[in-house]
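Narrative of accomplishments. A recurring question from our advisory board has been how the design workflow behaves on a single, concrete structure rather than in aggregate. To address it, we present the structure tokens for one chain from the evaluation set, followed by the sequence designed for it. No filtering or post-editing was applied between the two.
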């Protein structure tokens, strides 16, 4: 699959990183998340606080003109329908998959499924062994990512493969918040911090 070249839009984005991050990690792609998509993610994550909910991340893949490295832009989400769910599990059924592909063909024929998202109510931000299995079998591309949201603690993070194809279920990553009009952040996840603040903390130590 060939991707169009474009310049990564860091100039209109705020980069967010976890408070604790392994500096040796080499994620395969840079993640850009539009503010509209972030709002929709948070709204769906809060729609059922007793059971896990989830869906798919939709957008485009580009190659950065500056370094030829891939980056993704998540433009919107598709909440999963016809799921089986409980307080500690979420299953995408055959009907969920059929509905997904029908919606993609009808509404977003020019976009790709960039990954998936789901919630972990009161459980924290991590990838379980089931999450790993699902991700590796249904989202095999290096540019496909998984997002976990913990709505009670207002936390979230992306899980993604490294350049060598490995997937660390203990290490989540932040993202680049893509501003809509004004340069004003709407990210409220408490486990992430702006890159500038991280740099300031490092200077103080």
């Amino acid at each position: 699959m060939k991707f169009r070249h474009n310049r990564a839009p860091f100039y209109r984005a705020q980069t967010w990183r976890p408070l604790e991050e392994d500096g040796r990690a080499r994620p395969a792609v840079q993640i850009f998340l539009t503010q509209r998509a972030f709002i929709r993610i948070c709204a769906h994550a809060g729609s059922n606080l007793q059971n896990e909910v989830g869906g798919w991340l939709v957008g485009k893949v580009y190659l950065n003109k500056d370094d030829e490295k891939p980056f993704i832009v998540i433009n919107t989400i598709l909440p999963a329908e016809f799921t089986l769910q409980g307080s500690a599990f979420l299953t995408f059924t055959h009907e969920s998959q059929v509905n997904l592909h029908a919606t993609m063909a009808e509404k977003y024929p020019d976009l790709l499924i960039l990954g998936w998202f789901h919630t972990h109510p009161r459980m924290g931000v991590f990838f379980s062994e089931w999450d790993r299995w699902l991700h590796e079998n249904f989202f095999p591309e290096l540019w496909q990512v998984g997002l976990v949201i913990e709505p009670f603690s207002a936390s979230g993070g992306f899980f993604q493969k490294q350049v060598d194809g490995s997937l660390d279920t203990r290490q989540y990553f932040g993202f680049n918040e893509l501003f809509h009009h004004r340069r004003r952040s709407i990210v409220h996840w408490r486990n992430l911090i702006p890159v500038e603040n991280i740099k300031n903390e490092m200077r103080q130590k």
